[in-house]
Design brief:
The structure holds 2 protein chains of 2 kinds.
Chain A lengths: L2 E5 L3 E2 L5 E8 L8 E7 L6 E7 L4 E3 L7 E6 L4 E6 L8 E9 L6 E5 L3 E5 L2
Parallel strand pairs in A: 2-11
Antiparallel strand pairs in A: 1-3, 3-8, 4-5, 4-9, 5-6, 7-8, 9-10, 9-11
Chain B lengths: L8 E4 L5 E6 L12 E5 L6 E4 L13 E6 L2 E6 L8 E8 L7 E3 L3 E5 L1
Parallel strand pairs in B: 1-9
Antiparallel strand pairs in B: 2-6, 3-4, 3-7, 5-6, 7-8, 7-9
The chains are: A mainly beta, B mainly beta.
């Protein structure tokens, strides 16, 4: 059974870089699949941030593309998110999840439990 | 930034049937891309409820069903139970510049 677990600082200062890691258990990232990040501001809806293939190919939300970097470390079986120049608008619960390929579009399953990141000085 | 529109809330008494709509456009649902649904219980991560418009993952009760037509999709919950009180989100793929994966605005289901 695939399980994902996010980790990283819960507080980031404005203008700095948010960094999170998602540890994968129950499956070897190097075996395949895409892996992704999704966020949810408090009391609001879900927003896809980006996804990475085990080979390192990445796809980002155009609205965040200039600030986002997603990378994968197959030796540690984990992937990471970096979001630069953060503002209060980036305060959210950040989830890692696995996109599953469908015939006409992918869905996300499973999800990590999520980690709250607050942007504040 | 949501490009899929859902009603903010729906409610029903235990045992009743409720439906949640998800309205998109010609660049996502209307383009033939599948719709998927997630249930988010209070304080927890979203959980896959329906994939590929109408398929239930193992363990999801058959009280939950999905359908799609044109530029919209729907999630139906029959025999509503107290444990179904949660937020529900639809999700699809969008071929425009708004991004690859798009989510609905979310619907709060309240069991009266």
């Amino acid at each position: 059974q695939v399980q994902l677990q996010e980790s990283g600082p819960g507080l980031v200062k404005p203008s700095e870089t948010l960094s999170l890691t998602c540890a994968v258990s129950g499956y070897s990232i190097s075996s395949g699949y895409y892996w992704g990040w999704i966020r949810q501001p408090p009391g609001k809806g879900l927003e896809w941030i980006g996804s990475i293939y085990h080979s390192g190919s990445t796809y980002y939300n155009p609205s965040l593309k200039s600030r986002v970097t997603i990378s994968v470390d197959t030796s540690k079986n984990q992937f990471s998110l970096k979001l630069s120049s953060v503002t209060a608008a980036d305060t959210a619960v950040y989830y890692c999840a696995r996109p599953v390929a469908g015939t006409r579009g992918n869905w996300f399953d499973p999800w990590g439990q999520g980690t709250l990141v607050t942007v504040s000085s | 930034q949501s490009v899929l529109t859902q009603p903010p809330s729906v409610s029903g008494a235990p045992g009743q049937r409720v439906t949640i709509s998800c309205t998109g456009s010609s660049s996502n649902i209307g383009a033939g891309y599948d719709v998927h649904w997630y249930q988010q219980l209070p304080g927890t991560a979203p959980k896959l409820l329906i994939y590929g418009n109408s398929n239930r993952p193992s363990g999801v009760p058959d009280r939950f069903s999905g359908s799609k037509s044109g530029t919209s999709a729907s999630l139906a919950i029959t025999g509503l139970q107290a444990e179904d009180e949660a937020d529900y989100y639809c999700q699809s793929y969008d071929s425009s510049l708004s991004g690859y994966y798009v989510f609905g605005t979310g619907t709060k289901v309240t069991v009266l």
